[in-house]
Amino acid sequence: MTTSTSQEFVSVKGKQIVGPDGEPMLLKGMGIGNWLLPEGYMWGFRRANSPRMIDEVICQLIGEEQARVFWRTFYERFFTREDVRFCKQAGLNHVRASFNWRLFVTDDYPRRMAGMGWDCLDRLVGWCKEEGLYVVLDMHGAPGGQTGDNIDDSWGYPFLYEDPQSQALAIDLWAALAERYGDEPTLIGYDLLNEPIATHFDRQTFNPKLEPLFKRMVAAIRAHDPNHIVFLGGAQWNTNFDVFGPPFDDKSVYTFHRYWEEVTPALIEPYVAFRDRYDVPLWMGESGENTNAWIAAFRELLEANDIGWCFWTYKRLDTDRCVVSIDKPTGWDTIVAFAEHPRSTYQELREQRPPRAVIDQALGEYLENTRFESCRVNQRYLAALGLQTL
Q1: Rounded Cα–Cα distance for residues 325 and 95 (Å)
Q2: What is the mean pLDDT of residues 151-170?
């Protein structure tokens, strides 16, 4: 168990998140999507919309071993010290590192806590420590699947809530992360499950299972780490707080997500009422993918109600609806066409695979374009977030 004193850490005091000095701290952050859990829409893909489906496309294009090289390079370039420095200079105070459990656990039996995800997080935490930026760890894809949709890299069903082995693995992973980072003040805390229980599943069956699982996760974390915050997200894509009873941990923050709705006080009223009822802090852990005017209006509503925020997402391909945009590589439309076309037989693969020169050009340029120094900063998006344009 960590022996550090709580005064070193970001913590909670009543309805407030407070800094190490005990003073209120308004969280202003960006989610690092697509880095440790790629999503198809960020690549221009619709059919190949989960990490393993994207990996299948890459393997079909260049082979399994070269795909391993591709992904290692991707993890090294997509989010780097330069990105961290830029986030800090722009005026953000934290990033939300969204990760897939598969990068931290082996495929063998019994499973072991090992994988390139550990090195990625170690580098991130080290850079953020040096630059003065905080980190939230976000289990975006949990064993078995917490949403049952593409965003958790699941098999199309929220098996997490029915499979004891998946639950044990998710709990063990949080315990291992808490043991590794329990003494690290750069960490704000642990966002236990991203957007649990999609709206298209039976909420009467699944919703009652969520808070008990959270309690088990928190107990495992607290065995190693009494200092950091735990972030608890509501059911139905982090919108439904009816699944919660009274707070069960004294360093809890309750987190909600809202997308594509009219920005009025009614949008956040249920969460504000929950905050007032239980005297706990709130954090808007994800929103975005909208116009600059909408982003500005929602941010202003949150800040007027003393709610910290973390918008989505920091970087993706060919868009102005994020902080920095990756330029579309030469030949990328050909890669997208291959990903979108049926490839269920080897004949279809042979017929649809682009020429290798086109593949190598497009994938190589994509990896180069993901570097911060190759990206385009969306100044109006920064302005909508109330940040310093750079």
Answers
A1: 17
A2: 97
Average pLDDT over every residue of 222-249: 98
Report H helices in the chain. Answer: 51-62, 64-78, 81-90, 116-131, 164-181, 203-206, 210-222, 235-238, 269-278, 292-304, 332-340, 346-352, 356-369, 379-384
Question: Taking a C-beta distance cutoff of 8 angstroms, is the pair 33, 42 a contact?
Answer: yes
SS (H, E, C) 285-297: EECECCCHHHHHH
Mean pLDDT of the 173-181 span? 98
Which residue do the tokens 């499979």 mark? 163
**Closest residue by Cα to residue 1 from 214, 228, 213:** 228
- CA 360 – CA 244 distance, rounded (Å): 50
Distance of CA 67 to the CA centre of its chain: 23
- Give the integer Cα–Cα distance in Å for 388 and 390: 6
Tell me the three state secondary structure of residue 32.
Answer: strand
Contact criterion met (CB below 8 Å) for 323 and 300: no
The span from the CA of 169 to the CA of 84, in Å, is: 30
Q: What is the DSSP string of 215-261?
A: HHHHHHHHTT-SSSEEEEEPHHHHTBGGG--S--STTEEEEEE--SS
Residue 280: exposure state from Cβ atoms within 10 A (0-12, 13-18, ≥19) = buried
State the Cα–Cα distance between residues 171 and 190, nearest whole angstrom. 12
Residue 360 phi/psi, 5° resolution? -60, -40
pLDDT at position 235 over 80: yes
pLDDT of residue 349 exceeding 70, the answer is: yes
Q: Tell me the pTM.
A: 0.96
For tokens 């294009």, name the residue.
Answer: 61
DSSP code of residue 160: G
Q: What is the pLDDT at residue 166?
A: 97
C-alpha count within 13 angstroms, C-beta hemisphere, residue 17: 25
Residue owning tokens 């260049």: 62
Strands 315-317 and 324-326: parallel
Mean pLDDT across 368-386: 97
Q: Cα–Cα distance between 147 and 196 in angstroms, integer?
A: 5
What is the C-alpha separation between 207 and 205, in angstroms, rounded?
6
